[in-house]
Amino acid sequence: MSVSVDVQIASKMHVLPSVEQFVAWAGAALCGAEGDVELSVRIVDESEGSELNQAYRNIAEPTNVLAFPFEAPDHVPVPLLGDVVICAPVVCREARNQNKPAEAHFAHMIVHGTLHLLGYDHQAEAQAARMESEERRVLAALGFPDPYDFSEAG
Asked: How many CA atoms lie within 13 A of 4 on its CB side?
């Protein structure tokens, strides 16, 4: 299996994780995926995050992460999983509010978005439990604490 992650930094924030970190976090979430896989990660500011959230979810404000799975026609074998869009200012604000290191929250959002591209969801309780369990497993392997246990933050 080969993994290709294209990282696009469209945010003007000066303090962001490195491209290599984004690639490593997405790659960790893809561990176990079959065949060659490609995805794009785009780091945006609130204006682009708001536009995308409005266009695709009809919500007129930015959110922390959006995932856009790519669905090729059955007869076209393409390794592209899709796109993950992270709104950097929202992630940084959430990290502050949750008393978490920004790096840990960025890692969580990359893993979360990548898992969405792999078909994980959290609409139903059982789906959410499965997805959160996988997030915890991937993040622990990367050395991050449980993202849902706020008592570990700090």
From this structure: 10
Residue labelled with tokens 């959006």: 66
Helix and strand totals (H; E) in the chain: 5, 4
Q: Is 90 exposed, middle or buried (0-12, 13-18, 19+ CB in 10 A)?
A: buried
Pick 59 or 153 by higher pLDDT.
Answer: 59
Instruction: Note the pTM of the prediction, 2 decimals.
Output: 0.91
pLDDT of 125 > 90? The answer is no
74, 101 in Cβ contact below 8 A?
no
* CA end-to-end span of the chain: 36
**Domain 3-152: CATH superfamily, name plus number:** Metalloproteases ("zincins"), catalytic domain (3.40.390.30)
Please give the distance of CA 68 from its chain centroid, rounded to a whole number.
11
Q: In what side-by-side order are the strands of the sheet with 80-87?
A: 3-9, 37-44, 80-87, 65-69
DSSP line for 40-109: EEEEE-HHHHHHHHHHHH--SS--SEEEEE----TTS---EEEEEEEEHHHHHHHHHHTT--HHHHHHHH
